[in-house]
Amino acid sequence: MLYGIVAATTALLLAAVLAALLRAPALRLGLLDRRQRQRRVPLSGGAAVVLATCLVVVAGDRTGFAPLGEGMGTLLTAGAGVAALGLVADAWRLKTRFLLVGTAVAAAFVVPYGDTGVLAGVAAVGWIAGVALAFRALDHADGVAGTVGVVTAFGVAACAAAEVMDGLAVLLSVLAAALTGFLMHNWPPARVALGGCGAMFTGFLLAVAAVTTRAGQDATTGAGVLFALTAVAVADAALVVLARRTSGRPLLRRGPDHLAHRLRRLGLTPAGVTVTVGAAAFAGVLVGTLVHTGLLGARAVLWVAGGVVVVVLVLWRVRARVPGQVRGRRGPDVRVSREARTKHDARVGQDARGGHEVRASREDSPRHRVRSRRRSGALVQRPRESTESAEPVESPLRASPRMASSQVSGSLRVRNG
Q1: Residues sharing a CB contact under 8 Å with residue 120, sequence separation 6 or more, in sequence order
Q2: Angle at CA 192, nearest 5°, toward 189 and 193?
Q3: Half-sphere exposure of 130 (CA within 13 A, CB side)
Q4: Residue 72 in contact with residue 168, Cβ under 8 Å?
Q5: Number of separate domains in the chain
Q6: Is 68 contained in some domain?
């Protein structure tokens, strides 16, 4: 008990200090994430969380105060490998398919096939990889991924403690403390971000720990518990997939259409969005933990599933600002579709090849119509003042008739005509 308090405090302070120290190197190396238009946030928080968690846990295991137990060393090594993969993605923008395959390979080494079975173990590998990428997607706004990670880590740690998995419970407690220290710099407005390194590390550890605690128990109830523990991440991923499929946009292309973006469109402040998402995560984690411990029936998970469906459908109706959208001065946003621009460019190209004069191309352009709406009513021609009956006014630049010609010489003489 005493070591748990000391370890959590150490991880919190160490993560806070490392996040501040690594901020300047991240700025120099260009490890940045652009948020809220031109505000750039360095991706140094993930490395701080990974280092703080690994150092504290390894120190406790080596000193003998908190032995990790069997399999925890492999889990920590696999998590560090996933964190390294996320760091590479932050630096060189790897494609999502490579991240998915790499995370699945790491998960294949830590899934307890003896307790889950082969088929359930393969399904668990896919679920772990999906949760890791879902947590990476949660890092789209200040404080969201860190808050959800802290709440989920405490819930999964409670499930592990109920199963007398002390080493796993200590690991998750240290992770929650490290994320809390990171949130000191990530609370809106954020000075550092979690990035793929910290987000994938967090999601990977939480997913593997949840699978480990449910291994060997009822598969249906276990699936419900796993869903409830990660309900916010699942809701965000489902919302993004639904919105991009229905609008015909690429599924893996980043865009401002996640949970936090749509909540901001409803008028919530950045801090209000973080608190709202954290409260939703706490509700799902609480239900999952109570179902795991037997204090609630398995049907309680259906309430979480219903809430996720309602939230996804309601937020799906909220218009998200997507690439190719122009915001006018007044009125709703006017979306300039790519199809309209493509047809317009093709028509202009055909007219140019045929030798015809292209005069109306600018008026037919969708962008010109948007600019016309912006300038409507802005340019009002002022009436010209009549100068026919006005008396001539002597200019102050004209030379005075009293000026003697001897005082002005050569080319400096001022003419009065």
Answers
A1: 219
A2: 95
A3: 16
A4: yes
A5: 1
A6: yes
